[in-house]
Amino acid sequence: MQYVEANGARIPAIGFGTMTLKDALCVDMVSTALRSGWRHLDTAQMYGNEREVGEGLRASGVKRDDVFLTTKVWWDKLGAADFERSVDESLTKLGVPSVDLLLIHWPSPSVPLSETIPLLNKVKREGKTKHIGVANFNIALLDEASRLTKEPLVNEQIEVHPFLDQTKILGAIRRHGLTVTAYCPIARGKAPGDTTLERIGKAHGKSPGQVSLRWLVQQGIVPIPRTSKKERLAENMAVFDFALSDAEMAEIAKLKRPDGRIVSPSPQAPKWDS
Ligand SMILES: NC(=O)c1ccc[n+]([C@@H]2O[C@H](COP(=O)([O-])OP(=O)(O)OC[C@H]3O[C@@H](n4cnc5c(N)ncnc54)[C@H](OP(=O)(O)O)[C@@H]3O)[C@@H](O)[C@H]2O)c1
């Protein structure tokens, strides 16, 4: 397994996304993923599957310390009255004393970061998470969070795939010295149907989905693809044994389009930088 590092965090270079995985399927997919070599799990309180993710982790037989576990606090729990309770609830459901990375899932329209960031710092100091970070923050919010935090932020999780231009926010995340996690890394299944990715993949004996994941990995971005199918676990992991040329990387970057975004900003979210 390769890793990306920032501010003391060492994050496996690919992770297993779990959004929409529920009940026995979630337990089974998480434990199968870990048994087949995945070492990084992405969940969130909002996904309603933390209990099953924790169960899958235990069922896998893989040691807790060998797995990088991320969860997130939903935007309506970012105030002083709710934040710590939300984190405690996540830990109880996951059945672990701490996670490796705790993210603010979305910014809140009403709770200022000056209230939330100290709470994020506090749970880190209390040992409930090893590392902290944010998700879906635009540049202004990332600047503000970086100014307010006393504990280092290590990661921002955003939508990244070949069909979306995230140059500006990626630049800001890097300027702040954070790692980047890419959600929707195969564009929610749209990458597999793309003819350019297919052609490039054929040249390497790889699928279009693998090309999309490799394009991210090669930029030092951590993709967290999700699948509900066991046979795709090996396919999605097999992206470390080939390399895209500079010309191929550039050609894939040209697939970006104005309507490429998959996850629309929620009504409460601030404007994206595009
Ligand atoms: N922070 C946030 O706000 C946020 C937002 C969205 C997502 N996320 C996280 O990011 C993870 C990944 O994003 P995502 O689930 O939205 O999108 P994704 O991983 O890009 O795509 C998942 C879809 O692609 C299909 N798929 C997976 N592997 C495939 C392959 N090798 N070939 C063809 N199709 C394949 C899956 O179908 P099958 O199940 O049929 O394989 C599923 O429908 C989520 O699970 C979640 O953990 C975070």
Explain how this protein is built:
This protein has 274 residues and is of the alpha/beta class. It is 38% helix and 17% strand. The strands form two sheets. An eight-stranded parallel sheet has the order 3-4-5-6-7-8-9-10, covered by helices on one side. The radius of gyration is 18 Å and the shape is globular. Bound molecules: NADP nicotinamide-adenine-dinucleotide phosphate. Residues 17-19, 42, 105, 135-136, 157, 183-189, 192, 209, 224-229, 232, 235-236, 263 line the site of NADP nicotinamide-adenine-dinucleotide phosphate (NAP).
Strand content: 15-25%
Radius of gyration: 18 Å
| Average residue-wise pLDDT | 96
Bound molecules: NADP nicotinamide-adenine-dinucleotide phosphate
Outline type: globular
Order of helices and strands: EEEHEHEHEHEHEHEHHEHH
Main pleated sheet: 8 strands, parallel
Question: How far from one another are the termini?
Answer: 33 Å
Tell me the number of helical segments per DSSP (H or I, 4 or more residues long).
Answer: 10
- Unreliable segments of 5+ consecutive residues: none
